[in-house]
Amino acid sequence: MVLPDPQDANPRSLLRAAQAAIERRDLQRADALYLEYFACARDDAPGLRDYAGFCLRGGHAGTACYLLSRTNAIHPGDAGTLVQLGYAWIGSTDFERAQEAFETALALSPADAPTHYGLGLCHEHAGAWTQAAASFAEALAAQVSGTDAFPILLNLAEARRRAGAAEQARKHLEDAGRIAPDHPALLLAKARLLREQGDAARAMILIDRCAQHAPDEPRVVLEKARCLRALGDVAHAMRWLARLEKRSPGLPETHAEYGYCLQSSSDLPMREQHWIAAIDAWVKAGDFASAEPLLDRLLAEHPTSATGWNSRGLLENARHRPDAAEAAWRKSIECDPAYLRASANLALAYESANRLADAAAVAENASRHIRERQPQDAAIEVRLVLCKLARRRKDPVSGLAHLDRIDALAPTDEQRMHASFERGKLLDMQEDAARAIAAFALGNQLALAPWLRWNPGKNKALAGVELMLDLVGKGLLGQFKPIPALANHRALAFLIGFPRSGTTLLNQVLDGHPAICAIEEKPTVQKIMDGVRNMPGGYPHALAEFDAFDVEWLRDAYFRSAAEHGAADPSRLVFDKFPMNTTLVALLHRVFPQARFVFALRHPCDVVLSCFMQSFQLNNMMANFCTLADAVAFYTRTMDLWQIYREQLPLAVHTIRYEDVVDDFDGQVRALCAFLDVPWQDDLRDFSRKALERGRITTPSYEQVSRPIYREARYRWERYREFLEPFMPALQPYIERFGYAPPAA
Length: 745
Description:
By secondary structure, the protein is mainly alpha-helical. It has 4 domains: 111-181, Serine Threonine Protein Phosphatase 5, Tetratricopeptide repeat (Alpha Horseshoe); 184-247, Alpha Horseshoe (Serine Threonine Protein Phosphatase 5, Tetratricopeptide repeat); 248-253 and 261-454, Tetratricopeptide repeat domain (Serine Threonine Protein Phosphatase 5, Tetratricopeptide repeat, Alpha Horseshoe); 460-737, P-loop containing nucleotide triphosphate hydrolases (Rossmann fold, 3-Layer(aba) Sandwich), CATH 3.40.50. The protein has a 5-stranded parallel sheet with strand order 2-3-1-4-5.
């Protein structure tokens, strides 16, 4: 078959050519043809559904979500499209929107088995086992083909088992056995149910049959160990667990089962150690439903377990329940004052919440139990908190003494990294620029090394800025097509600039305003980016072709995320602070043409230096700040892109300089309120007290914004002039552009 020339082909011929390419298994060619088809047939619903099916089969669920959402907008009310969309949302792990799609489809077609099954999967993911069972039962009742009933029966049996209806679960598994009696998933499910009902011998027979099909499947090996334990052969069970740990290390389920195997032995500390490992792994993964029952059991059996109460604190902290976390950590300390991990966690939580007196009391009490010159992981964390507290009360001598004592406790590289940043800040207080720079350089080196091992190659954030600079240089912004009949959006302002430019200060000032919902560095804009990347063409190429559907689809994703982060009230202005959204202004203006942009400005030398001196949690963006050279390069390219946006886009921008806010707080904030169209309030001056009352602030500036306006951070770079001198030619144009005095002044 001769493929049509893309320049001359019509949409239907492109679609047929794509389908033919799929038949030849030339999926790369099919993808290219579908992309070309979409460019000239964005509103062809049947073709979009076909394209979406191709994407789903290829594992590109996000693109399928976009295509099917677009299809549904073109021809609303089609149950088949909604069901397909629901499964696409499941593939994108957005079970909330999947449930919405399935429920809408059921209103149109109440007896559709795939729809009920999909809804059951959504309930299953939420742990709503009774509702899941009801949906799976409806799917089974609507199912015609016996073979297709098999997965429904398995899921229905699991939901019944989890809901406590073991006998019903057994009957469903028997029905599934009539369809595929030797299916490994069925054998595993029947074995699990038999073991839970006390018939471990029959369960072992089934699990051995299952192992013939999947001998190294972790769930099979784990169930084998559980059956052996139930039969009293603990030693054999632990050998299987050792095999599982070797093949699949770190599974929390393995540690949990180790603990059960040790339950009848005298090695209680080892059992607790395994259970704590399982609980902490589940908490770290966000699987609170698995962690909590085991933690409850541990504490019920050992109510004075200091490690157990510490894990309870970690669980509650991960759930954003600071009061419950505090109570748990205090209980841990009460159980064993010499167990320093809980003290370190509690003191650090207090310090990050700016409760300095409480942090000092906990850390100082803990320090009495530190055995000097003996490696103690938690002791190092206590010393680090004491060092931070000394720095915050402007006592660098004491802070440095704590750091010197850490060296004798065998710190890890990560702990050395944190200590190096603290040393740099203390030496900066002493105006020892040379030693401070050396300490910050070591901290950055220790932070960057593991990051580069896991993220080799060039930095993606800088590459993204360079790509956008290249495209806008070639006229991308001028190619943006007008979007007629686009509805106005909710009042919205983006606080942008560059990290360490005073954005957290401005955010905290406005956070208490009754007319504003302030969002502090949450992934709201990332939802838009994800949406654009899932469009045919991706980011940034798809921007030029946006139509009204695209914009509304992206707005919906953004405001859903904003509501999750406290901005649900549509009557209040959303004030979204994320400094590096500066690079995404073209996208944000395209989606929100009435949005306002507050550009936070600070002397370029201070910005670059402060980024280098800050211990960030590294990602593609923050990895640019580990050397002064990289920080300068990222800053200058970001500001180049911002300048082009200012020149070529009709943006509503208010620039506010950090130094001016320090000198004239009322005047600058009044002007900002006027720009945002919200009234000035006298209590905005009291932002530091409000910050303390709000508790933990999740940005590196949490220390500074808990203080009233101070001036010592202005023009700090001048003390480091000799270290910045090699970069002054690169920074000078931006110093002049932003109206700062020449360096010689």
